[in-house]
Amino acid sequence: MMKEHDFWNKLRILVTNKCNYRCPFCHNEGQDKDNSADVMKLTDFISFVDFMKDQPISELHFSGGEPFLNHEIVDMIEYADKNTTWGIGCATNLSRLTDEQIHRLANTRVKFNIQFPYADKDDFHKSTGTGSYSHIIEQITKVKKAGIRIGLNSVVQSDDMKHIQNLINFAIKYQLPLKLLPQIGLDGSDKFKELIYPLLKETSIEVKDKGTGALRWIIEKEDKQTVVLYIDSPCFDKDITECREFGELRVHPDFTLQPCILRSSNVRLNLQEGKEKAIEQMTCLWNDFKHC
Ligand SMILES: C[S@@+](CC[C@H](N)C(=O)[O-])C[C@H]1O[C@@H](n2cnc3c(N)ncnc32)[C@H](O)[C@@H]1O
Ligand code: SF4
């Protein structure tokens, strides 16, 4: 039995709506993909963290758009690292990270979740529009060498299991954790698990139900092990209980708060009104988050 939260458990901070990739499946975390760039300011992020740091939050995840298109992202991660005890993650396509940024981030506890659609050069390029597979492999090598934790995120876009098998082989070869995310918004993607579970079973030595809609498989091949997480989105069954157990709130660059990725929100934090008002708005939103 999971513990009931009385506040948001995870914050997903969207530091920009812009991206340099063109992934066809991208939900952009519920943000508009119009022409105007929304970019979160470091000063606002700092106020927000200062307001929230005593709340029972366990994780903060940076996302976007591509977070590294926001020039203040490293300062934000460093600030969260120094001023909170929360777990810190960053979803990124890794394409724009400089050596200097890698060096600075190696001194923080950030973990990267890398958008990695295919373990194949041509498919990778086609899927991302502008991405280079070999560049990303180089980036992964550098980031790992710097000691930054890293995992792969892959959106399952079809029932072609050849791609999934390639990804699993890649994850085992490089001993990288892999998250498989059935595409939200694609008809039939709730059924992909019926094909993927048997694949994982072939090499699995342990499987655990995380209770938040995710199954965690430990897989092993030729003495190498890795972890594969299959995330069955609560959106597929409109399972509000599971969603509340996960307890994740999206915070847009202008501090609009979005409890559900499939629904827009009109609640916006006014940071100028201070800490108490911000916490009150966040608490109200949590207490109202009872329906999809
Ligand atoms: C929107 S991206 C933004 C951060 C960064 N650009 C990246 O791709 O990691 C955040 C995460 O959402 C996932 N994602 C995007 N569209 C999705 C969809 N339709 N269904 C499930 N996951 C999706 C991506 O694979 C990525 O792991
Ligand atoms: S890299 Fe991330 S934000 Fe950019 S298009 Fe792909 S999934 Fe969307």
Could you describe the 3D structure shown?
The chain has 292 residues and is an alpha/beta fold. Helix content is 33%, strand content 21%. The chain is built from 9 helices and 11 strands. An 11-stranded mixed beta sheet has the order 7-8-9-6-5-4-3-2-1-10-11. A hairpin with a 2-residue loop joins strand 8 and strand 9 (224-231). The longest helix has 14 residues, at 275-288. It is globular and about 55 Å long. The two termini are 22 Å apart. The model has no long low-confidence stretch (mean pLDDT 95). S-adenosylmethionine binds at residues 19, 25-29, 63-64, 66, 91-93, 113, 115, 153, 155, 181, 183-185.
Q: What multimeric state do the chains show?
A: single chain
**Strand order across the biggest sheet?**
7-8-9-6-5-4-3-2-1-10-11
Number of helices: 9
Termini separation (Å)? 22 Å
Structural classification: alpha/beta
Any idea what the radius of gyration is? 19 Å
Proportion in β-strands: 15-25%
Bound molecules: S-adenosylmethionine, iron/sulfur cluster
